[in-house]
Amino acid sequence: MFSSLDNCAWARGSVLKIALWWENLEQGGMETHVSALLNAWPSSDDSFVLFTNTGNIGLEKVVNQLDKKINLQVVMLPDSETLSLSFGLIGARFFLPLMRRLWRKQCVEVLKKHHAFDIFLVDNGGYPGSIRSLTALAAAKELGIKKRILLIHHSSAKSRFLRTRSERALDQNIECTITDLISASAATRCSLGIVRGFNFKKYLSHVVHNGINLVQNVVADLSIRNQINIQPDELLVGMLGRVKPYKGHEDLLHGVSQLDLELKNRIVIVFVGPVTDFESSRLMRVAHDLQLENRVHILGYSNLSSFQIVRQFDLLVSATRDFEAFGLTIAEAMSQRTPVLVTRVGGVVELVDEGSGFIVSPKSPTEIANAVRRFIQEPEYVDIMIGLAFERVEQFSASTMAKKVRRVMTSEGA
């Protein structure tokens, strides 16, 4: 065995050497989570080795925001040709098992180069997410790393037709490999049980909500408002994050289009976040058909911090249609006293209750219209909501999250 109880942290004290495995191909909430987790880590004596792929476009943000007190080494891995179950039928039967064996061997070798670890933590997006990351858990078990933790943020993907057998084998392997499972919300945990049939009795299962840095002194920035020339009598209604159909941007457009002309002319809509040319053009066609083209701005990715962005909004909208594991952007808006309008999906309702935000049904432009109308016409109610939201979000601090994750690492049993 590469590591044993004789040289693990439980034998030598409370200082942990942690392998953090994080592969990523898209900009999104993952880098925000990793950054918050590292910067809020409760023990400066612990050390991290971050294993990540060369194509991880969120890594620069994490490194730039890293607190100097964090003992972190970054190990770059070549991009695997695919990080998801996007194989065809032949691949599902033959290619995936072959690649898993190859990746496992590679993972064993790269872990050996960095000596004994006490903890192996895979920070994944959805499930199954990065297949090589899951395979790395098996490598950690082969090397005798005592704690092998899988952290899942989003919903689970359904096993697809003609791939069920291969994917079931993957799930069973993971359940025999991990010692602990951390879900970012109760909704995420439920998704693993219902969609993939996870048996939570085989290992320790924990719900640790994502947390944010409760920044009180965000550097003021009005660049977005200035860029689109917001007038004093106009209200900026914004969405922040990847611009994709399931995120419900179109539903917001249809909702605003139902407002009376007087109210409609007070609203300016802005979408901030990575977007393809195709999706941008599609949404602008929708806006044109709804006679909103002069009220809609699609800005794409911004280098501003998410706190600086949401602080410029008069109302943050999260209109996800199917599943949202938690909603980091929502929490950030609440911390900046920006009111929120959210859909009743996944773990969002674990963060926002009826008093701290406008909650509407997914795929319901009419309910969105009613909420926006109330936002404009009832400022006293909105002020109360902002106060309650600010109090509520204090429960979801990065410090609380990091302490809970470390407690999972030092807990006994499996």
Give an overview in words:
By secondary structure, the chain is an alpha/beta fold. Helix content is 42%, strand content 16%. It contains 17 helices and 13 strands. It has helices at 9-12, 29-39, 59-64, 89-112, 131-142, 164-177, 186-196, 223-227, 249-257, 261-264, 277-289, 306-312, 328-335, 348-351, 365-377, 379-393, 398-410, and strands at 17-21, 47-53, 71-77, 119-123, 147-152, 180-183, 204-207, 235-240, 267-272, 296-300, 315-318, 340-343, 358-360. The strands form 2 sheets. A 7-stranded parallel β-sheet has the order 3-2-1-4-5-6-7, sandwiched between helices. A 6-stranded parallel β-sheet has the order 10-9-8-11-12-13, with helices on both faces. Helix 2 packs across helix 17. The longest helix is centred in the N-terminal third of the chain and has 24 residues, at 89-112. It is globular. It starts with 8 loop residues before the first helix and ends with a helix.
What is the radius of gyration computed over CA atoms, rounded to a whole number of angstroms? 22 Å
**What is the helix tally?**
17
Helix content: 40-55%
Helix-strand pattern, N to C? HEHEHEHEHEHEHEHEHHEHEHEHEHEHHH
Global morphology: globular
The N- to C-terminal Cα distance equals: 19 Å
Spans where pLDDT lies below 50 across 5 or more residues? 1-12, 81-90
Q: In summary, what is this structure?
A:
By secondary structure, the protein is of the alpha/beta class. It has helices spanning 9-12, 29-39, 59-64, 89-112, 131-142, 164-177, 186-196, 223-227, 249-257, 261-264, 277-289, 306-312, 328-335, 348-351, 365-377, 379-393, 398-410, and strands at residues 17-21, 47-53, 71-77, 119-123, 147-152, 180-183, 204-207, 235-240, 267-272, 296-300, 315-318, 340-343, 358-360. It starts with 8 loop residues before the first helix and ends with a helix.
